[in-house]
Amino acid sequence: MMAKKNEFLEQIEIKRNELIKIVAKDGLNSHVAVEYSQQLDQLLNKYNELFYKTGTNF
Predict the structure, then answer these.
(1) How far, in Å, are 14, 28, 31 from residue 47 at the CA level?
(2) Among the four residues 35, 44, 45, 51, which has the most C-beta atoms within 10 Å?
(3) How far apart are CA 11 and CA 8, in angstroms?
(4) What backbone phi and psi angles, to 5 degrees, belong to 45?
(5) Element (H, E) at 24
(6) pTM of the predicted model as reported, rounded to 2 decimal places
(7) Could you give phi then psi for residue 3, rounded to 5 degrees?
(8) Cα 18 to Cα 1, 25, 46, 56, distances in angstroms
(9) Mean pLDDT in each 10-residue stretch from start to end of the chain (58 residues)?
């Protein structure tokens, strides 16, 4: 379970860094920035669902 948590955290960090770069380049309201933001939200929601709502200790 710990490996899966670490994989999610790594994916979240990668997507967050990508979003920061896109926002710096294209602006916060650009189509690409909105798309990346939605992808990051999905990752965060899935992470919370798997590791917080289930009460899984890690």
Answers:
(1) 14, 24, 24
(2) 51
(3) 5
(4) -65, -45
(5) helix 2-26
(6) 0.83
(7) -65, -40
(8) 26, 11, 19, 29
(9) 87 98 96 97 93 63
